[in-house]
Amino acid sequence: MSKINSTLQAAVNQQINKEIYSSYLYLAMSAYCETINFPGTAHWLRAQSQEEWEHAMRLFQHMIDRDGTIKLSAIQEPPSEFGTLKEVFQKVLEHEQTITRNIHELYELALKENDYPLQIELQWFINEQVEEEKTAGEILEQIKMIGDHKGSLIMLDRHLASR
Ligand code: FEO
Predict the structure, then answer these.
(1) Domain residues for 18?
(2) Is residue 96 in a domain?
(3) Distance from residue 129's CA to the centre of ligand 1 (Å)
(4) Residue 115 CA, ligand 1 centroid: distance in Å
(5) Which CATH number does the domain housing residue 146 bear?
(6) Is 72 exposed, middle or buried (0-12, 13-18, 19+ CB in 10 A)?
(7) Which protein residue has the closest C-alpha to ligand 1 atom 1?
(8) From the alpha carbon of 48, which atom of ligand 1 is closest?
(9) 155 lies in a domain?
(10) Is 19 in the pocket of ligand 1 (CB under 6 A)?
(11) Which atom of ligand 1 approaches the CA of 96 most closely?
(12) What is the pTM of this model?
């Protein structure tokens, strides 16, 4: 495989940072959900946090395979409070929408730089983002339908525990 160029190396290193931040953010959300007594949601978010770490590792491995230089940078501190359960999932969805934009920008750059292997690698991420936005959006819609009905929120929380 051809060596990844320096412009793309910098961009992929940045995306690795964003995926690790995503992992950190969902871990913070998971801890928060434990404090507001939604252990099922906390479990779901912890699994999500692990997935984000795996996303970072996919890009990490791609860089290694392409003779790129990994440059790890500081991870931003996530918030520690996220409001109501509805607000938690609003924030998950918004975050995923931001990540989708980041992935699309990275893909555009890979097109501009004629880097075919990176384009192929990023196609997995493009599909994954469709899935992630869909899942977060569906949970958010369910929470909106439930409204303030505590019993139904507890049922949803139990459902999220099964992830
Ligand atoms: Fe790795 Fe949820 O984006």
Answers:
(1) 6-160
(2) yes
(3) 7
(4) 22
(5) 1.20.1260.10
(6) exposed
(7) 52
(8) 2
(9) yes
(10) yes
(11) 2
(12) 0.96
